[in-house]
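User: Hey, quick favor. My workstation is busy. Could you predict this chain's structure for me?
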Amino acid sequence: MSEKKLPSYGGQALIEGVLMRGSNHVVASMRAPDGHIEVIHEELGGIYKSWIKKVPVLRGLLVLWDSLGLGMRFLTMSANIQTGEDEKIEGPQMVLTLLASFGIAILFFFIAPAWIAQIIENKLNLAQWVSNTFEGLLRLAVVVAYMVLVSRMEEIKRVFRYHGAEHKTINAFDQGLEITIENVREQSRLHPRCGTAFMVTVVIISIVLFIIIGPFTNTLAARLISRILLIPVIAGVSYEYIQWSARHLKNPFVKFLYYPNLMVQKITTADPDDSMLECAINSFNIMIDYENRKEEDFALK
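Assistant: No problem, here it is.
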C-alpha cells in the first residue's frame, strides 16, 4: 500500500507574525504590541482558483504572486498592527507598488548583471558561454549579498526568526506530527520548499538557460530583452524543480544537488522563541481547520 501524499502547504514570515497558505485559504497570525494575537483569514480566489494552478511550469507563477501580491498585502497589514495605523494598499496604488517592486527586482537581479557581463565580454573579447556564466555567478553574488545585508537589520532579524518558526511548523506537519509547541520546537528551521531556495534555484536555472540561448542573444538589446521575457519561464521551471526535489530528498544524489538551497536558508532564517512558534502554529492550525471544512459548513454561516 502506497504512503498517502500530504498536501504541500506554504507560508511567509511577516512583521511579528506568520502567514500560512493552503489551497483555498490563507491565515495570518500577528502579535500585537499589547501581546495578543491578531488573526486575519481570507478565502483564496482569482488565480488560485484558475486553471493555471494545474498546469506544470505555469503554476510557478503563483509563487511570484505569493511574494509580490499576497505577501506584500499581508506585510502591510502586519506593519499596520504594530503602528496602529489602518493604511491599505489596494486598487491602482497596489498595482503601482507591485510594478515598482517588480521593476526594481528585475533591474538589480537581472538587468544589471546582464549589462555588466556584456560590457566585460566586449572589453575582454570573451566567449559568449564564459560571459553568460560570469553573468549568472554575478547574479548569484548579488542575491546572496542582498540576503546578507538585510539580515543585519534589527527589524529583519526578527522577521527571519518568524521565518524559522514557519519552517519548523511545516516540517512538523510534513513528518505527520501533532502541531504543538513541543513538537515544532524540535524541528529544523530549514525547509526544501522555501522562498529563499526558490530565489537561488531561479539564478541557477537562469545560468543554464542563458548559456543555451547565448548564440541568439549576441547583442546587448537581445540579451536584456531575453532576461525580462524569460523570467516567467525560469520561475515556472524553478518551481517544478523545487517541488520535485522536496519529494526526493531521501535520494543521496538529489540531496547533494539541493544542499546549497538548504544552506543559504541559514541566512534568511533564525531560531524562534516560543511566542513566535505560537503565532506560526496558530496560523497553521486555523488554516488547516478552514481547509478541512466542507462547502456546506460555510453555507451555514
